[in-house]
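Extended Data, panel c. Modelled sequence:
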Amino acid sequence: MDLSIIILSFNTRDLLADLMDSLRESDLGGISHETIVVDNGSEDGTQDMLKKQYRHIRLVENNNNFGFSRANNIGGRFAKGKYLLFLNSDMRVEKDAIKKLFDYSRINNGFAGGTAKLVLENGKMDPACHRGFPTPLNSLSYFCGLERIFAKSRTLGGYHQGWKDLSKPHEVDCISGACFLIKKELFDRLGGWDESFFMYGEDLDFSYRLKQSGYKLFYFPDAKIIHYKKKSGREKKSNKYSAQNKNNIKTKTKTKEQFFYTMELFYKKHYKNKYPKLVYKLVLLGIKIVSKVKS
């Protein structure tokens, strides 16, 4: 089998149905594939909806919310494809997006995997699909707003690498876990997603481990996917999908805590011995300050 599409679901029934319909309408051009949905104990009728309307998929029903990494690793263990495409449930794929993404990966052996161009509801690109690593300088520039002013600067615009031509395919340091294509053999060899990361940061961690192991990831803008974003977590504004989450306030609080916790976790895992102790401590202090300001 060529491709396993793995979708993580948590209280996003209607969004998931929209994604499933877009996948059903997709032109995969003869790519042999399977679809695996891993549901993290949704309480909005997601599992019943999948069983009634999408019987062709493989549904993995978790009793609890296992988080992003653990649940996607479960999906990866069931997968039979040579490639794995991890998708969030809050996506809608263009008809030929997956085919374009898969074909580009297959003919470019220099890359271990990559991502499509993710487009937000407002038509702008989701910057999370095109990032550098959160070095102390990149993080400082991003959180202080300098990156917005000097977006094209290699020094101050390093977190989202705005100097690169976003209209053409190219290598990128880090891509979003919302749309992450990877060879299964390599995914298994690196141990999959690090389950220390419950939500957020796992894509940074996995991309970093790939890079440290000598592999490359690509950004491919010809394949476009709509990303509604934050419908299971840190969404600020209500919309037609928000009411589905019965534990909306509790979920938002937990995911916001995880957002900053995983920043600290990433630094401790990868940067503790890479930078002088003073820099490392200042970074951790900065994370705590930002988390207080944003709370």
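The first strand starts at residue 3 and ends at 9. This feature is highlighted in the accompanying rendering.
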